[in-house]
Amino acid sequence: MELKLTKGKATREAYGSAILELGKGNPDIYVVDCDIGKSCKTVTFSQELPNQHVNVGIAEQNACGVAAGLATCGKIPFVTTYAVFGSMRMLEQIRQEVCYPKLNVKIACSHGGFTPASDGASLQGIEDYGLFRTIPNMTILTPGDYNSTYECVKLAAEFDGPVYLRFTRDPVPTLYPEGYKFEIGKANILNEGTDITIITTGDILAKSTEACIELEKLGISTRLIDMFTVKPLDKMAIEKAIKETKGIITVEDHNIINGLGSAVAEVVAESDNECKFKRVGIQDQFGESAPYESLLKKNNITVEYIVATAKKMLEK
User: Fold this and answer.
1) Is the pLDDT of residue 1 over 90?
2) Binning pLDDT at 50, 70 and 90, where does residue 273 land?
């Protein structure tokens, strides 16, 4: 696939469009809102499909219970809220009421990572998919642009079991063409390379793509992997990168502890092959009220830092 970024939209917009299409085609698709449908783009769903919509108010734990009940009746509920609430305020309920019985509930969360920038640390979900990595039976999808999000929401609806979906608040560049096929548990190799591998996920896909393009201009053959399924992890793609390239860099808008970087590090550590490895992400610190790009820069989640890290790896 050609590495070409174009102007895009927020991935939460894709969720709103996809869930409406799914709901119209399947009366078993439900949205369980936590009183933030406007921010999470489910208002149109509630207006056009009121019999498939439940707004529990600011009561996330209750939303999970309602969704679990709907799932036992054969419905496919999407609990919709912010990442910080969907992961932490609902964590016990998701573990006990959804994942333990392996119910067909989807947790669809906007405002993941630093994207709620000006809202401050309390609304920046920087630990969300790391928490869900530790819970059995949970599948985690973190698409990186509008088109991939649209397809991942459809995949989640087709998948039988708990799924966590993470979306962004602000627009992100588009990389994938419409209708690109995705498969849960299988990473997308966006660029082949033999020197360095960049493994990325979520909204940082664009910066990782830009870094890949810059490295290629410098004559550094760079493999770019979109690990949009954080769990189950595509271990085969990682093991192949360990064998065929000289170093791996993971890039994410999430705490480097227990995030994508940790997941990949586990595979690297258990491999029989030597491989240089570096995690780029939120440096185990809370965010603050600041522009999104400033928060990323403070944590070295930039194109320049990724390129410099790759060059340093090869020098060694």
Assistant:
1) no
2) confident
Task: Report the C-alpha gap between 150 and 143 in whole angstroms.
Answer: 9
**Known catalytic residue: 293?**
no
Residue ranges, comma separated, of all CATH 3.40.50.970 domains in the chain are 11-166
What pLDDT score was predicted for residue 76? 98
Token pair of 78, please?
């999407």
Alpha helices in the chain (DSSP H): 11-25, 37-40, 43-48, 60-72, 83-84, 91-93, 128-133, 146-158, 205-217, 235-244, 260-269, 292-298, 303-315
Mean pLDDT, the chain, integer: 96
Which CATH code is given to the segment(s) 188-315?
3.40.50.920
Active-site option among 2, 13, 48, 60: 60
Cα–Cα dist 264/262, whole Å? 5
Element (H, E) at 23: helix 11-25
The H or E element containing residue 311 is helix 303-315
Q: What CATH superfamily classification does 11-166 receive?
A: Thiamin diphosphate (ThDP)-binding fold, Pyr/PP domains (3.40.50.970)
Residue 41, φ and ψ in degrees, nearest 5: 65, 40
Strand 196-200 and strand 222-226: the pairing is parallel
Q: Is 316's pLDDT higher than 90?
A: no
Closest CA relative to residue 165, chosen from 135, 200, 204, 138: 138
